[in-house]
Amino acid sequence: LCGLFASHFAQQVVLTDFVDPIIKLAQSNIDRNIENLKNCTLSTSFLSWGKEIDNQFKNNFDIVLGSDIIYTKQVIPKLLKSVKELLKPSTKDNLSLFIIGFVDRSAVYDSELITKARYLNLFQVAKSILPSKPPFYDVFSEKVIIHIFALKS
Length: 153
Description:
single chain; alpha/beta; four-stranded mixed sheet; two-stranded parallel sheet; 4 helices; globular
């Protein structure tokens, strides 16, 4: 859903996952919505955080979006390493951004994300905390956190 939404504002969107059935589902969603995606190249690709990034994707994106992708503290360093490799270097006129929203399932996720991001030259430029309400309520938390990080060159 996040990628399909982004396709209305971008020239290129790549939907990723590390599980083949999810990639197939994403491709199916693209195929079902292709008539609405005329101004954007939309594709799918395998991506396992912390692993080698395909050269065609390295330093190739102005924005990386993540939607509810943090489920354990241990994935945060791998996620951020991959994000940094995917983003183009920022310039004076164009900041490369990582935008992530997640349900705050553990109090440590937020602080861990900010700390590890800073270590990789990803600096927080905005943060918003939203109440999690039905029908989007998560039994583990009453809030959704959205961060915007900029890659400092």
